[in-house]
Amino acid sequence: MPNINNQRNREDVKKFMKMGLEPPLNMPQVFKDCIQVLGGSEIKLVIQKFLQVTYLRPQQNHLSISLKQIRSSFLNEDEERMFNAKR
After folding, report:
1. What Pfam families does the record tag this protein with (predicted)?
2. Domain range for residue 77?
């Protein structure tokens, strides 16, 4: 039964903790194709995260990324400087 009050049960927490230790699965080719059509390049896993119900709502137009969860750098040097200047 889904947890409708947005609280994680013990099993969800175990899965979440395990996610960071497992090697990521290969990205499906259809996702890679879509990224390339949108002008993306250098496709790589940046973050692996549980999605909560709130992330899927139409009015939710962002996804937070914790610096501690980033698996690989994805900003170029100029973007990195701008980001660090704002912190």
Report:
1. At2g31720-like
2. 10-86
Most confident of 21-30, 42-51, 55-64, 75-84: 75-84
Separation CA 16–CA 50 (nearest Å): 7
Residue 59 placed within a domain: yes
Considering the domain boundaries, does residue 73 fall inside one? Answer: yes
- When pLDDT is averaged across residues 30-39 and rounded to a whole number, the result is 90
Are 71 and 48 spatial neighbours (Cβ–Cβ below 8 Å)? yes
- The whole-model pTM stands at 0.47
Q: 3: which residues sit within 8 A by CB, 6+ positions away?
A: 9, 12
Percent of the chain with pLDDT over 70: 71
User: Which pair of tokens denotes residue 82?
Assistant: 């701008």
